[in-house]
């Protein structure tokens, strides 16, 4: 899907790691939510509450999921992060991403 229709977009950005990761939240008519953002090169550790499906549009990064080894991803690609977990990122080039939050079957 190249574009989203009939959505509400948060005006304010979520800014993490001194601006190295930024995103904007979008909400769909069915209540589901995604974020659209970028990650600049660096190393980061993030937490999840809900399962996240990370859709990498472009860029190169390595991901360390719980109880796994580092895996390299080159966009376009997708990977899943389990709910209630911490994961690490090594971002090697600007990453353009869309994150889908899976909760309550949505």
Automatic annotation (TrEMBL):
<dbReference type="GO" id="GO:0047975">
    <property type="term" value="F:guanosine phosphorylase activity"/>
</dbReference>
<keyword id="KW-0328">Glycosyltransferase</keyword>
<dbReference type="Pfam" id="PF06865">
    <property type="entry name" value="Ppnp"/>
</dbReference>
<dbReference type="GO" id="GO:0004731">
    <property type="term" value="F:purine-nucleoside phosphorylase activity"/>
</dbReference>
<dbReference type="InterPro" id="IPR009664">
    <property type="entry name" value="Ppnp"/>
</dbReference>
<comment type="similarity">
    <text>Belongs to the nucleoside phosphorylase PpnP family.</text>
</comment>
<keyword id="KW-0808">Transferase</keyword>
<dbReference type="GO" id="GO:0009032">
    <property type="term" value="F:thymidine phosphorylase activity"/>
</dbReference>
<comment type="function">
    <text>Catalyzes the phosphorolysis of diverse nucleosides, yielding D-ribose 1-phosphate and the respective free bases. Can use uridine, adenosine, guanosine, cytidine, thymidine, inosine and xanthosine as substrates. Also catalyzes the reverse reactions.</text>
</comment>
<dbReference type="InterPro" id="IPR014710">
    <property type="entry name" value="RmlC-like_jellyroll"/>
</dbReference>
<dbReference type="InterPro" id="IPR011051">
    <property type="entry name" value="RmlC_Cupin_sf"/>
</dbReference>
<protein>
    <recommendedName>
        <fullName>Pyrimidine/purine nucleoside phosphorylase</fullName>
        <ecNumber>2.4.2.1</ecNumber>
        <ecNumber>2.4.2.2</ecNumber>
    </recommendedName>
</protein>
<dbReference type="GO" id="GO:0004850">
    <property type="term" value="F:uridine phosphorylase activity"/>
</dbReference>
<dbReference type="GO" id="GO:0005829">
    <property type="term" value="C:cytosol"/>
</dbReference>
């Amino acid at each position: 899907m190249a574009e989203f229709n009939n959505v509400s977009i948060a005006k304010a950005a979520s800014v993490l790691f001194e601006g190295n990761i930024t995103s904007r939240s979008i909400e769909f008519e069915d209540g589901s939510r995604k974020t659209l953002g970028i990650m600049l090169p660096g190393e980061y550790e993030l937490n999840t509450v809900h399962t996240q499906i990370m859709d990498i549009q472009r860029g190169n990064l390595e991901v360390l999921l719980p109880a796994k080894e580092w895996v390299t991803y080159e966009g376009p690609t997708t990977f899943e992060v389990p709910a209630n977990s911490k994961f690490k990122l090594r971002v090697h080039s600007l990453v353009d991403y869309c994150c889908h939050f899976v909760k309550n079957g949505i």
